[in-house]
Amino acid sequence: MAIDVAKLREKSSDELDKEEQGLREEIWKLRIQKTTGQLQDHHRVRQVRRDLARVLTIKRERLAARS
Asked: Using 50, 70 and 90 to split pLDDT, how confident is the model at 3?
């Protein structure tokens, strides 16, 4: 299930950094599973990539707001 954007906006910068790191690790693991033929939920890769994009977008918005 996709991450709720409202919940992401409530998180601190450190929490967003941890979320980003976790999503990047999950993408890496899913890519390994896909390569070895063990991936069951092929749609999960796309879903996690979109969640990562949401996190990065919020981080950029905060950075732009500071400037």
From this structure: confident
Residue 1: what residue type?
M
pTM above 0.90, yes or no: yes
CA 6/CA 51 separation, integer angstroms: 13
| Cα maximum dimension of the chain | 46
Residues sharing a CB contact under 8 Å with residue 7, sequence separation 6 or more, in sequence order:
none
Q: What is the DSSP string of 14-64?
A: HHHHHHHHHHHHHHHHHHHHHHHT--S-THHHHHHHHHHHHHHHHHHHHHH
In angstroms, rounded to a whole number, what is the distance separating the alpha carbons of residues 32 and 54?
23
